Amino acid sequence: MSFLQPMGLLLALALPLIIILHFRKQQVAEKNVPTLMLWNQVLREVQGVKTRSINRRLLLLLQLLIGALLVLALARPVWIASWHGEEVTIALDCSLSMQAVEGGATRLAKAGDELTGYLATLPDDVRINLVLLQKNSRLVLEKASPDEVVERLARIACTSEVLDMETAAGVLNACPAPRVVITDKELPLGDKRIKVGEHLENMGITGGTYDYHTHAALCRVKNYASADRTVLLQLEDDRGRRDVQKVDIPAGREADVNWPRLDTGAQLLRVTIQNQDLLAVDNSFLLPVGDSFSKKVLLVGESYYLQQALASLPGITVQSVDRWDGVKDQYDLYIINQEPPAGMLPAEARVWRLNPPAKMLGGQIDGPAPLTISPGTLARDLESDLQGAYVNKCAVLKLQPGYRVVMEAAGKPVMAAADRRLYSTPDWDNTNFTLLPAFPILVDNILAWFFQDEAAWLQPGDQIYPERDRALRVQGPQGFNAALEGIPVTLGRPGVYQIMESGQKVRTIIVNPPSGLVSGTIEQSEKQNKNELTGGVGSAGLLPPLNLQVIILVLALVLLAVEWQVYRREL
What we know:
By secondary structure, the protein is of the alpha+beta class. The protein is 22% helix and 33% strand. It is built from 10 helices and 34 strands. The protein has a 9-stranded mixed β-sheet, covered by helices on one side. The longest helix is centred in the N-terminal third of the chain and has 28 residues, at 47-74. The chain is elongated and about 145 Å long.
């Protein structure tokens, strides 16, 4: 049995007062009476004296029991059934918000204290499954002893990742019940929850973008605090130029801050919240804007209108050559109008072939043929009918397994896409389609499709994967250095990461804080709502704890009724 309010037991010091008051009531008082005739009746009832003496002692005993029961009820006793050879699952939240510092300690440290106290209430033979809740929640200990959990707890660090609800729910549901969740969030997870931390008084940057055409930077800031806040935002480029804006944000709301007409030439912009708050990790956001972050595209062969469309796209650096001679660099995308020499294209290269090999051709369209775009990813923002767009003398593609049609001429496929490969047969210098606004939009969509697996920036917890036959390393903030060989590398804290090969920089990766504290949703059941805990290890038993307070109060009421009957018999 455990007590939720053990200080209530101090009231037991008042129980001796019951004994003092009881014997004080029985003191004999001397009285003057006019006659002794009534004593004869008293003597006839002398046999009842013994009974009344027993009733007085019983009355004292009942009063002491009632007092003791009231003391126990005020101490709020609970009974946690002992377990023998059973399991319990404990989920510890170590996601982004657990970095918040309150009273000189992080919420993760406070959660560790709660977990250590909770483990002290468990029998030694209970086996524990420990789950870490983060972006990629995982089971780190299975059927471990409390001592093993305490040892592992010392090596657990808080991540900069957002908590993914679907992943967390999937991992927890695969573990045995009961499930105890230790977190600072309102999570509909587990059978019991131990809450740490108060309201998150924090401001965080949740997103940003850069418009290459207008040279404007846009940043979105959220006020997680319980009151309205005035936020100071500083924009700084890699040349040390700064600008500060002030914005008022209501509690729980987001606001956009815009810096228009920025000077060109910067490679990297950094937006920083100048206010102090509980979380520092989401107070900075990086915007890659320079040529070093642009995609390198090689165009082999003449295609004037395609070259012009590529040049108009932001974040793209295009090199045009007439033939393959002299091409030595590696490119992010190859757009080729000529057959490449053997071994020229990397095995995993992204390739857009403007002149497909003969084995992929299946006939010829003579004369003008109307062009249409097939619905799909590459056709977003484009009308299905290009309203008069046509092409002259175009070859027809013979579709291969796994390819999907992107464009048709006279109802026959002339552009098809598959994994990292795009084939098209129209001559872009011999069609009116290149004169329409839809053409650069299509080219932009095509490049977005090629680079869909490479976002402008990543988030903590995202992974980068090794490349075949390349010995790469990843270097990042706070001395991060890992080999990119064999297995993916998980990116931790926000900042700038460099992929290196033989001491040379291959690629720069930006990692920004996530756009919130929790991603995804799951349905919250009525049972989970009823089982919420607000802290303290005593009430977080393995089984639903038996609340003895109600039982003790009922028993005290019963004894009070018995005491009244005994008292009446003494009257």
